[in-house]
Every structure is written in C-alpha cells, then in structure tokens.
Amino acid sequence: MAELQGQRILLGVSGGIAAYKAADLVRRLQDAGAEVRVVMTASALHFVGSTTFQALSGHPVRSSLWDEAAEAAMGHIELARWATKVLVAPASANTIARLAQGRANDLLSTLCLATEAPVVLAPAMNRVMWAHPATQANVATPGGARRGSAGTGHGRPGLRRSGCRPPAGAGTDRGGPDRRRRRATPGRPPRADHRRPDLRGHRPGAFHRQP
Fold it and tell me: H-type helices in the chain, by residue range?
C-alpha cells in the first residue's frame, strides 16, 4: 500500500454496526503511512465512541457542524482542504442517499461537498437494503459514487441497473402465450376457440362461411 504513504485521509464514519471496524481501519491506514483524521455522524456515535478514534488517530474527532470552537475558523472548510482523500467507511444507505442528492445537513455530507479530493465510499448495510432500486440508483449517480467506490459483499457500486423482463415461459406451459385447451363445464357449451386456424396444406378458397 505504498500509494498511501504521506496521504492525508479524512475518514468519515456513518451509522451502522460496521462502524466498529473503522477503528481497525484507522490503524491500518496509519501503518501504510497515511495521516488520518476522523469525522463521525450522529448515528455513528450510537455504535462507537469518539474517544476510541481520537486515541487511535491522535487528532480530535469532529461530529458536529455546530462546534463553536472548531467553526470559529471555518473548521469544516479547513478539513475539506486538508484531505488528499476522503473515505466514508462504513457508508450507510442514508449517507449514500444524502451524498447522491447533494445534501449538506451534517458535517460529513458538507465536507464531501466542499472537498476537491477524491471521495471513496465503502457501503455497508443489509443485503436487501443494498439491492433496493433506490440504493442502486443512488450509487449509480455521480454524487453517490463520487469519483470512486469500494466494493461490498452484496453488489458492485456504480453498476447501473439494466432493464428487466420476465423469463421466457413465465406463467405459461410452453414458453409463450397460454395455449392450453380449456375444459368444457358440464351443462354449458364449450367456449369458442378463438385461435387462428392452421392454414398449412390448404389451398385458397378451401374454407367456406358456415350458414
């Protein structure tokens, strides 16, 4: 991982059970020669405390856009300019949706809009949430993929959904329109067969109108 040597990585941690793995990620990035600073969403703080990341990174952890001490000097702009790479790991479905829509309603989403550094997402969520068309549409947008994307165990970010059609023969017995002959109900005349007659082997004029 020589390409990380000397890099300034801003690690964004969003809410999800995978947030605890981000603590190990800080150490691994540092071992590769990168300097790491951490930004957490309010939801992420419910899964792991900021003290853990502060001890590992050696820098104060930011979690609020309304931190008076930090924002006195426009701290979020400084962080956005400081980073050479932004990594959001884990990236929850909610965070991906906000980035895709260009929202800036918390510190992490504001930083992702304000930085000129490459932003990489590491999606982490329930497999059904990942497969949902809304999530797939969000990761397929320029705002959701953001110039780069790490893989997940349940899909490939940035892959646009292709059109779907029912498999051949779905709902039929022969791979096409249902041609099964209907049985006549006792006491009722059989239904008229509206299928087109087989004209093979007949010459023109061989059929006559019934009286």
Answer: 21-31, 50-57, 68-71, 75-82, 93-100, 107-114, 127-131, 133-140, 142-145
